[in-house]
Structures are given as C-alpha cells and as structure tokens.
Protein 1
Amino acid sequence: MKSVDEGNPLHFQDVTVELGGRPVLREISFALRPGEVLALVGPNGSGKTTLLRTAQGLVRPLSGEVRLFQRPVERWSFRERARLVAWVPQGEEPYENFTVEEFVTLGRYPTLGPFLPEGEADRKAVNDALREADLESLRGSGILRVSSGERQRALYARALAQGAPLLFLDEPTSHLDMAHQLEVFEQLDRFVSRGPSCAAMISVHDLNLACRFADRMAWLSRGRLVALGSPGETTTRERIREVFGVEMEVEQRGEKTVVLPPPVRSDPPPADPGALRVHLVAGGGSGEGILRALLTKGYQVTGAPVHVLDSDEVAFRRGNVPAPVVAPFAPLTERSREQHRRLLGAAQAIVVAPLVIGPGNLANLADLRPFVPVLPTFLVGGPPGTAGRDFSAGQGERAYEDLVVAGAVQVRGTAELMALLSACASDRGRASSRGTGGPAEVLPASGAAREDAPG
Ligand code: ADP
C-alpha cells in the first residue's frame, strides 16, 4: 500500500505540540509538496515558528508524527537532517566578524564533517551560493559590516550552500525594504526549481507578499491550521477577519489576489480639552503596551503611519486611534507622510515606541524632527542602533540622535513615560487655567484614506 506521504518531502499527521504546558500546535496535518513554495501566515503567536521548528525535529510533538522524506523526522541524525533541510531562522545575528565567504562556507559543515578540509564540491557550492545571492563582490567583506539586506542575503546563501532540497525560512522579510522582500521570494522561486524534490516553507507577515509569490498558503490561528490552499482560494475577507481579527478588502486583480485596507478610517474623535493629545510612533508591536497605558489614562492618541496588519496597526484599529495606514508591501507614501504631519500638528506630546527602524519607516522619524522643539517628545527604550533595532545601515540611529539634539527626552520604559506625560498634562492644565494655554487646536479632519496597493 502506498503511504500517504509518498513523494512528498514533508508530512505532518495530527501533530500537537505543547510548550511550557500550553498547546501551541493542535492536530496539524498537511504535506509539503515537491516544487512548491508554501507560505505560513497568521498573527504573532499563532505557531508559525513552532511549526517550522517541529518540521525539522527541533521541537518534539506531544502526539502525531512528522515525516521527513518518508521517515519519522527523529529517526534522521542531526547531520542527516542538515543535509535535507536548510534553515534560515528569524533575526539571526552573526556573532563573529567572518567574511561573507567564510560565513556562507559555514553552510557546508554538515557535509564536511568535523575538521575535514573543504573540497572542490564545497568550494563550488559556496561560489554558486554567493553568485545566486548576488554577493560575489562582497565575499571579502565583514559580515557584521554589510547592510541588513546584504546580511539577509548571506543567511540565504549559507542555507543554499548547504545543498539541502528543503528550505525553511522564518520571517526573512520583516526588516527588509520592498526590493529586498521581492528578492527573497524570487530566490525561493528559483530554489524550488533546482531539483525534483526541492520545496520551501516560509513564514511571512505580509499577506500581499504571500498572495503574490506562494503556491499555497497555510493559515494558522491559535495553533490550528484553519485553511490550506492557493492564495486565490484561501484569502477571503471572512478568513482575514477570523484569523487576524481585522476588516480588510480582498480583490482579484487578474491572476493575483490583493489585500487592501478598508477605504476610510474614522476621523479623530473631537478634542476633549481635558485630555492630553499624544502622538505615538510605533510599529511591529512595539507600541502595544504603551498604547494600552495611554488609552487607560484617557489620553487622546493619534498614531504615525503603520502598515496594514502590522501588530500596531491592529492595535490602533482596535483602540480607534487615527493613524495613516499604508498598504502592506509598500513604502510610506507621500500621502501618508502628509497625514502624519497633520496629526503631529494637532498633538501636544510625542512618544516614540522602541520600534525597529528600517528603510520602510525611517521617514516616520524624519517627519518628527520639526515638531520636537515645540512639543515634549519622549523616546522609549534607548537608541535603536545600541538596542539592535536599527536595520537601516545607521540612518535610524542618526535620525534618533537628531531628535535628541532637538530636545527629545530618552525614557527607559512605560512607567517613566507615564509619569512624565502626567506632568505634561498637569502643566497644560495649569497653563490653560491661567488662560495662557489657549483652546485646544482643532484636529484636522484627516482620517486615513486607503493607500493603493501595488498592482
Ligand atoms: P509565531 O511564529 O506565529 O509568532 P510561535 O510559534 O513563535 O508563533 O509561538 C506560538 C506560541 O507558543 C506563542 O504563544 C508563544 O508564546 C509560545 N511559545 C513559543 N516558544 C515557547 C517556549 N519555548 N516556551 C513556551 N511557550 C512558547
């Protein structure tokens, strides 16, 4: 009798995983097919990373079975597994300043064996990987010195050099600008056509990227696989609402499925003269705790531009916080920046959450600069470079320093921030009771209109 997974390089059968006593994956069954790019989508905490780790035997299921090339994954030795699966984990930072070439050569260790010198085949695999990842001109550069996009390409090249038929990637695009995000998926396309049993599985935040490039999408919600199929079949308004808890529009443009923010977000609520108006710059979930504290305190909050389905965009939406939204998979537009400046013009204080700075959101910091001398501005969580949050080749760090020079105050955490904002609110209260604070400015009726998604 043929086994169900015959021909499929990876097969999950009723896999349940518990971590820390809690179910993280629940009864997952699916097969990765040869030649496909399978995108795992779902909100933070839905189990994407755990699924990728379980698929290569790094996490043991409580029940069910994972078969890698028709054999239970745990029956392959560590070295054998490394020959079958190349793994690009999330946010890996090289710890030593290897050259790019040395770093990529690390991918050969599973085939080399301990202390064996590299052979002709190893050198060829490394050279091919450097060429494929467009890193030949950087082969002698220090891996810690190259840009974040180039480092991401080196991680990919290291995985390629491994020569494994399967490639698993965990959110490799989150800190990359649009051009590099596209590049990752184009490379995956080439990867899966290298051999008959090649396939790739990638967790990705951005639904539009997944829709554009994946052959199939696996939708995870609280550890369950709730849908599996082509982007066109599985991407619906109802599913996005079910899985992400937000309202989106889904359009079919030719062959492609495109996810769009809803047309208009409500205008800011009318200004309450008693409530401080705080403008929050956030992204990637960095602002969730701060936002909760601000709303609990009764402040009126506005937000800087965020990408649709970013955790902070969802938090803004849930808190009814006006903030310009930008289509997923798009840079900040002039329109969103203009809306940002209008919201800043109506704010009484600015808070910058400890967000990751990348080429895609640098403009958010630059747009604050003219407002800092006239508004109390608080930067939570230290300079982005020092804190490992600068993925813009130092530009984020410089923009942050500019804000400090202009008078922004650095604060350690939410408690200190809230104390300082309280002081601002009472200063304003005193000033207005003396008649010097003036009436609250009228917030411009900006709202956030839909930014068009890429075609
Ligand atoms: P995703 O990649 O979709 O963000 P993860 O697989 O990282 O999701 O996490 C799924 C859930 O498992 C989360 O609730 C997370 O807190 C939890 N989790 C992840 N790793 C561990 C761990 N080592 N111990 C306990 N819980 C964990």
Note: Residues 264-268, 435-455 have pLDDT under 50 and may be disordered.
Protein 2
Amino acid sequence: MRLDKFLCDTVNISRKDAKDFIKKGFVSVNGIKVTDSGFNVSEHTDSVLFKDNPVHYEKFVYYMLNKPSGVVSATTDATDVTVIDLLKQEGRNDLFPVGRLDKDTTGLLIITNDGDLSHHLTSPRHHVAKTYLTGIEHPLSPEDIKALETGVELNGDGITKPAQIKVISDLFIELTITEGMYHQVKRMLAAVGNKVISLKRLSMGSVILDESLPEGAYRRLTEAEILSLKD
Ligand code: URA
C-alpha cells in the first residue's frame, strides 16, 4: 500500500498531514528515509518508523459518525452522498456502515472494516439495543406506550419484540428496540396511529453518540468502546 495511506491508517492523521510528514523526512522504511508519499510499503513485512518510533498497521478500524440527514447508509450510490463519502479523508477503501439508518435519520452510525463485529451487532440473534430520540406527531396515550413496549404488529414482519419507552415530552420519546427491521421505528409509531417527525439514534449497544460531534463529523471509537462492543 502507499506509504501515506499506511501512515494515516496507523497513526490516525489525515492524508494531507501524512504527506507533509513524509515529505519532511519523518518516515523511514527498513532503515531508509523515504520522502515519496506514493512509495509502496508492505504492511506485513516492512519495518516503518515515524519520528523514530515503530508503527504497526492496524487491521481493523472503528469510527462513530454523527450521521446527517440527506446522506445514505451505503458504501456507494449513483446519486446521493453516502456515509462512507464522509470518511474519505481516512483514505481507506474497505469501510462500511454497521447496519443502516434511513436517509432522513440522524445520529450514531458505527463505521468499520470489521465484518465479524458488524455481524455481531446486526444479527437478530444478539438483540443489541438501539435507542432513538423520536419526534412524534401526537402525544402517546398510556395504551400506545403499553402497546409499543409489549409489541405491535408490523405488516409482513410479525410482532415486534419488547421495547422500552422513555417519555421526554409530549412530542419526544426515547424508544429502545433490540431488532433492526426495515423502517422499524417509523412503522411501530404508525402501528399506533402516530407518525415519526424526526429520528436520531442515540446509542447502539454500549456505545453512546458523542454529542460533541456535530452532524457529519466522526471520530475513532476509543479502545474501551471497541472492547465493550465486542463483549
Ligand atoms: N427505524 C426507522 O424507522 N428508521 C431508521 O433509520 C432506524 C430505525
């Protein structure tokens, strides 16, 4: 792989900074200073030093994105901007989103290249909890809350598993579900005669959206977050 890509993937800097550091002579490969960003390096066999410290290639990477509205949860799309386009600075071509959020949904989306973790988090067998701040058209009645918490019929998909509701205000609830059916939250609210006006994912499993991230921004997951997700 290119030396600049190797460097930004390993020391978590932008592609531009990696190119600058390489040009300025901060990087050596097998004991020889290399100033060409396009130099071909093997992540398995070459020994790379950055500022005289050895760097090792990271096989798996994990990010949290605060997904903005209007961006699709796909790796490529003919017409729309994708969530992966938002991470193009990372210079990786193996990233994908863990599950999907609708185009108009905002909030937490985990992006990785770790297929096993993605499978673990999205498999229906693992019941990973996802919490959504949900803006609704009308206040929920106690009966609506009970029905949503117990399970409602979604055409073609059967009855939803038990969910949790925290009422924030008349027109905002936090809904926690452990499944990931197509348009699930919107269809659940429709099943009790209501309508979702806005939807933002706040958490997935143990990972909570970092509210310091503006919409469209992302950061690496911390070691603790990665470990808790794998638990
Ligand atoms: N449920 C929905 O209806 N949409 C989403 O994006 C996520 C959950």
Note: The radius of gyration is 21 Å.
